[in-house]
Amino acid sequence: MTATEATEHDGTGQPSIAPPTEPQPAPGATPPQAAPLFAKAAAELVGTAALVAVVVGSGIQATELTKDVGLQLLANSTATVFGLGVLILLLGPVSGAHFNPAVTLAEWWTARRGGAGVTVREAALYVPAQIVGAVLGAVLADAMFGEPLVKWSTHDRSAGHLLLGEVVATAGLILLIFGLARTDRLRFAPVAVASYIGAAYWFTSSTSFANPAVTIGRAFTDTFAGIAPGSVAVFIGMQLVGAMVGLALAALIFRPGREAGE
User: Fold this and answer.
1) Cα–Cα distance for residue pair 63/69, rounded to 1 Å
2) Looking at the predicted structure, is the pLDDT value of residue 113 above 70?
3) CA-based diameter of the chain, in Å?
């Protein structure tokens, strides 16, 4: 998640959530400079860990409660929507609540070309923190449900149509975040981003991972939400392609200089 305009951000962007006189970060936004770098990295680690714990934990719980795959996915997606929205709202003012290397890298790319966003130093800390957090979140979820702490997933997700689903899911996420940022609507990011991910669970064939760190973390659990290690690299590759597509679409649709209401 991410984009920017110097105002506010939840975990993927950057314009306003507080009054115009006191900009607060929202998804993708650059957090207040007062926040220490270690605090930002810690927020990304904890937030990503919590997100993966929600995704994996709700998947395990769902499979224990019903054998109906449709109900399992409904339970998994619903928990993810609420969990992600709360995490973005809580940690956005600290780090921008990216929880996603694709969002962080997209924001860095935008910043290096003159826009607002994370610095190279921040990105270099955010991405490893997100990956470590994702792995810890998967282990934590397994521990809470009495599963082996680390058991490589056997859920193969390398089919071509699933990879296309990841391109679409990630492109839509990046377009949403940067579109909100460029139209000064990042205050809606907690609801908008969480809602999009919840919808993408259902309209994409891959159930919308759209996140390299989460993809890595989910390889550590052989449960409902897992992904086989052999599918991880190609999934991440498609997510990065999707991020580039999303940035291109945002640049095409939300051209600099256009008013939010135009």
Assistant:
1) 8
2) no
3) 54
Number of Cβ atoms within 10 Å of the Cβ of 198: 19
Cα 255 from Cα 161, distance rounded (Å): 31
- Nearest by Cα to 17 from 137, 190, 145: 190
Q: Distance between CA atoms of 83 and 100, rounded to whole angstroms? A: 15
What does the alpha-carbon distance between residue 1 and residue 232 come to, in Å, rounded to a whole number?
Answer: 20
Strands (E) in the chain, as ranges, are none
> Exposed/middle/buried for 145, CB within 10 Å: 0-12, 13-18, 19+?
middle
What values do phi and psi take at 258, rounded to 5? Answer: -80, 140
Q: What is the pTM of this model?
A: 0.84
Q: How far is the first Cα of the chain from the last one, in angstroms, to the nearest whole number?
A: 24
Of 177, 179, 169, 181, the closest CA to residue 236 belongs to 169
Q: Are 96 and 12 in contact (CB under 8 A)?
A: yes
CA distance 90 to 32: 14
Task: Kindly report, residue by residue over 205-217, the tens digit of the pLDDT.
Answer: 999 999 999 999 9
Regarding predicted confidence, which is higher, 256 or 73? 73
Closest C-alpha to 108, from 173, 199, 28, 216: 28
Nearest in space to 208 (alpha carbons), one of 246, 235, 180: 235
Pair 84, 194: CB distance under 8 Å: yes
On whether the CB atoms of residues 215 and 236 are closer than 8 A, the answer is yes
Structure tokens at 205: 């064939």
Q: What is the CA radius of gyration of the chain?
A: 17
